[in-house]
Every structure is written in structure tokens, then in C-alpha cells.
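task queued by scheduler; priority normal; single chain, no ligands, no partner chains; default sampling; output format set to C-alpha cells
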Amino acid sequence: MLAQLIEMQFERTTSDLRRGQFRLRGQVFEVMPVNEEIIYRLEISERIDLIEMVDAVTRKVKHETSDMWLFPAKHYVAGPEMRERAFKTIKQELKEQLTIFEKKGKVLEYERLKRRVNYDLEMIKNIGYCNGIENYSRHFDGRNAGEPPFSLLDYFNKGVRSKEKGVNNNFLTVIDESHVTVPQINGMYAGDKARKDTLVEHGFRLPSARDNRPLNYVEFEKRVNQTIYVSATPSEYELGESKQVVEQIVRPTGLVDPEIIVRPVTGKGIKNKEKGISQLSQIEDLIIRIDERIKSKERVLVTTLTKKMAEDLNDYLLKKKYKVKYLHSDIQTLERIETITALRKGIIDVIVGVNLLREGLDMPEVSLVAILDADKEGFLRSATSLIQTIGRAARNVNGQVILYADNITQSIEKAISETNRRRTIQLAYNKEHNITPKTIEKSIKDILGELGVSSRSKEKGARNKRTTSDKILELDLLGDKRPLEEIIKDKESQMKEAAKNLEFELAAILRDEIYKLNKQTKKTA
């Protein structure tokens, strides 16, 4: 049994059990499977006398059982016959690739590849796996060069093989956000190939590493049958592939797509005869509109073209005493969640961002979305991006979008046309069914709390505590005229004594004080 478990990549341990590990103490054998936090406890004599399921934390026996099922501890587990076959083909491929390097005079690549592959084979032979074993998957799977790898879609009996066998492939594939997902399928394949080509060229991997890859789009299409593309902005590809296009434009709440207003980017100093004021720049106009939303206790999203512009605008609004934060790809995920929650709670009124405000955000409190430099054609100001960003204001009955542009581009024209088309349908439906639009009511959850993660504000509190400890140390030094070296030695002996008496909190405080004092001595040296 132990030999079989080791063959399945389970590890033997003498300490606490973790998933995929086992231990043997006398006649008691314990194992924790990879798929659940439970311990199987076996009492063994000439045979297995008893099998018990034991709680991994409390060590309480849950119940007895007559059998147990264990899955391999690693994804890549191969039997002896398969392993020998793989070894044979890997060595053959290594020989062929080394010959190519030798002919080209690539001495470094020759030696690098030889050592790497031989080391990997030795690791697989002795412990059953190696780092990067997936790069040899073609040899273990028994696939030919260039043949696509197995994927989850093969589980549904899809593809050329299953069609030949006459298997019913009547399953449904739903591709969400298809305008992004479909291009990614080709993108993943091309990106992976480019990376593997570099590794193979410089002798880090065998050419067969290329066959551990994502499916390309042709292979993907062969493995799916009925497909639903879901997108607010489908591309020409999805529309061309679809036999039927179904629009979901009317909302249960009666909410309509937001009103779109186009304002200039630059203030040209043109006098308005009616109001006697100059034409405002985009930031001047934005500040007026932010003030209006704050008075109404509503929130604002502002999208910029670059990270620097987002940060600069954030700093500018902070100087103007606005409660604002910025979001972009450099901001960690947990901090993004905290910022969005703060906006919904009213702790801040404005979020400035780049592409993160485009889709996937559901914030009913947001009634204004401002898109700066909307006439700068490109990925962030394409028709698709504009329509997606406009949709962020569609959760509030007062939803409005400001496009700051000096020129009406094709993308702006298309985004406005599509939004107005939807508004016309929605308004007509509401009028016909006597529906009064209502802002979505959505509870504000403490997502970080549910995940068991402390917020950054709590971390700041901890930093404040450390500041207090610094002040206490300063007061302590004021009453002690001894040299710092002598004070450090005294505190070291106090720390050891505290640790000896199990006063670990006191020992930790003394340790931190010693660290700070040592830093002071280095500065004065």
C-alpha cells in the first residue's frame, strides 16, 4: 500500500499531515487525501482491521468506514509502461535536437539542453516528477508532434475523434464577454508559441514543449457545437457566426441607458452671449458637475487615458478638497475592492481610473460617468470601450455620461447612436407598460471581511501603534544617560529573560526597541 501511494506521488511525513501526505507510526497508518481536509486512520495487523475518518483539526473520530478512495497527489502521474515509453521518445528527441545544435555550432545551447533534460529524466525516474514536467506532456500522452493537447472540452466527447465514433455532442458552450474572450483564444495560443520558440531556440526546452499549449481557434471550433456569445458589444465575428441575434435591452427596473452630453476638451475663451461666461475646459466643467452630484449624494466615475493623468487628476482634486481616489492596474486587487466599497458607502465621492472602470462594475450610486479626451481614437476610446464605459451609469435613474471631445470621431458617433437606439426602445417600452424607472437597490457588502482580510485602514492603525511605541522609546531614553551600546546590551538581557518566562509580547517589544537603537548607532557611527 505504501509503495502504491508513493507511486501516486503521496509524500511520507513524520509531522503534521497535509493534503497528499501520509505517516506510519507503529501499527497506525494515517493519510490525508488531496481533495478534502480529513484524515483516514487505519489500524493494521496482518490485514487492515479498522478504517476511521478523523477530523484534521480536532482529531475527533467522525465515523468508521469500510473503504476509502484516494486520487493521485499530482496531476502528472504515469504508470511504469507509459513512463518507459516516454523516456525512450524524450531521449530520441534530445539526440535529434543536440545534433541540430552541434551542426549550428551552438555549444552553450547544446550543453544547456543536455544537462536540463538529463536532470529532469533523473528526477522523474527517482521521485516521479520534475519541475516543468508538463513540457514533456506530449511524450506521456503519446501524441504526435503538432497534435493538440487534451483539454476540458475533450471531457464532453467533442472534437474529430468523437464525431468519427458517432457520439452525441449536443452540449452547450456559453462564451461570456465574447468581444474579449474570442480574441483571447487566438491570443493565448500565439503568445504561448512565441515564448516556447524562444525557450527552444536557446536550449532551455525540447521542441516538444511547444505541444504543451492552449488550443488555437480552429481546434477550439472543432470541439464546440452549439454556442451562445454573450456581450453588450459583440464584434463582427460573433454577429457573423450567429444564426440568431437576441437583444436584451429592456431592464426589469425600467432603467434606461444614460443621457450622453458632449463637451469640449479645451477652454477656448469663447463668450456665451446668453450667460456671459467663457467656454470651460474639460476639468473646469467636470468640477462643476462633480459638485452637482455631491449635493445630490451621488457618485462620479472619471476615466482618463493614462495612469499618470489619473494620478495627476487625483492629486488636483485632492487639493480642491474633494474625496477622491484613483484606480489603475498598479493598484492591488484588495485595495481596488476597498476603494469601490468606500465609493458606495460615501466615504469618497469620486474614482478616477483608466481601463478598470470599463466593465464588470455594478455601482448603483454612480450617476455620472465622465470620459476625458474621448476623441483620442484607440483601444481605450474605441466604440466598444465607450459603450462599455457608458454602461457604468446605467444603474442609476439619474444616469448621465459626459464625453469631453473637440472632434466627433467615428467611435463617438457609433457609441452615441447605439446608446440612443437603446434609449428609444427602453423609453417606448416603459411608456407602453406604464413603468417608472427605479435606481437599483443593492446592499453594500464587506467583501474584505467576508474573505477574512484586514483593510488597509487597519494596517494604518497598526502603523500608528508603532509610532506610539517610538514615542515611548524616546521618553525611555530621555531618562537614561548611558551610552546606546550599554542600553542595547541591557535590553537584550531583558528580552532573553522575558522569552525565558514566556512573556513573548514583552520580548517582541524589546526586540523592536533593540532594532531601532541599532539603527541609531549606525547613523551616529
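post-processing summary
- DSSP finds 18 helices and 14 strands in the chain.
- The chain has a mean pLDDT of 83.
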